[in-house]
Amino acid sequence: MLKTHLPYLFLLLGVFLLFAVLLPKALDTVGQDHLLAFYSQAVEQAGALALAPPEETPGILERDPDGYTGSYQASLSGYTGQLTLFGGTSIEPETEALSLHSQIQGQNGTAQLLYQMGSGAPEILLSDSGEYTGQLTAPAGSCYLTLDLQDFSGDISITVQPLEECAIM
Predict the structure, then answer these.
(1) Residue 133 to residue 41: CA distance in whole angstroms
(2) Is residue 10 part of a domain?
(3) Could you give the dihedral angle defined by the CA atoms of residues 88, 89, 94 and 98, in that order, rounded to the nearest 10 degrees?
(4) What 8-state DSSP symbol labels residue 95?
(5) Is residue 24 a part of any domain in this protein?
(6) Are 113 and 132 in contact (CB under 8 A)?
(7) Domain for residue 23, yes or no?
């Protein structure tokens, strides 16, 4: 039985030695800053996959390149689904303080505007009909602004901006 696993053990030992010897040399050559920038970019791209694509989102979704800011306008009729509109995953977010203004005018069904940070429970910012204006924090890690709609008919308006822009206006 040991003979059948012997090639795998040698392969595993070879891979371990390769990393033990070459990884420190690669870090010196490439530089830790380059490696960290590559890792940060990979994390951000993975986090962007959770966002609803604008072309598949009912209404008009205009998302800024950072993923965290933009606007969403929609008049929906009997829509059911979850729309992750803004957010992302980042080691160091470009904008840490965000200003949110949202308005939901529901006629039928249910709507919830949720803010999820990390793996914690999402915070319900607005439920069914009403208005919410407030400040959000986009810490390192992941955070997302999501609409959860069940047979919803009505109008929705959401704007997320960097807090600095709101102070100027």
Answers:
(1) 31
(2) no
(3) 50
(4) -
(5) no
(6) yes
(7) no
Note down the domain range covering 95: 45-168
Q: How far apart are CA 140 and CA 142, in angstroms?
A: 7
The answer to whether residue 3 scores a pLDDT higher than 70 is no
pLDDT by residue (tens digit) across 120-159?
899 999 998 999 999 998 877 788 899 999 999 999 999 9
With beta carbons less than 8 A apart as the criterion, state whether 131 and 102 touch.
yes
Q: Write the CB contacts of 54 (distance below 8 Å, at least 6 apart in sequence).
A: 61, 62, 63
For range 75-97, the mean pLDDT: 85
> Which residue in the block uniquely carries the two structure tokens 């919410």?
132
Query: Is 118 a domain residue?
Result: yes
CA distance 140 to 13: 36
For the domain that residue 105 is a member of, what is the CATH number? Answer: 2.60.120
Overall domain count for the chain: 1
Angle at 135 between CA 158 and CA 42, to 5 degrees: 80
Q: Is 139 helix (H, G, I), strand (E, B) or coil?
A: coil
Taking the C-alpha atoms of residue 95 and residue 74, their distance in angstroms, rounded to an integer, is 26
Cβ atoms of residues 105 and 74 within 8 Å? no
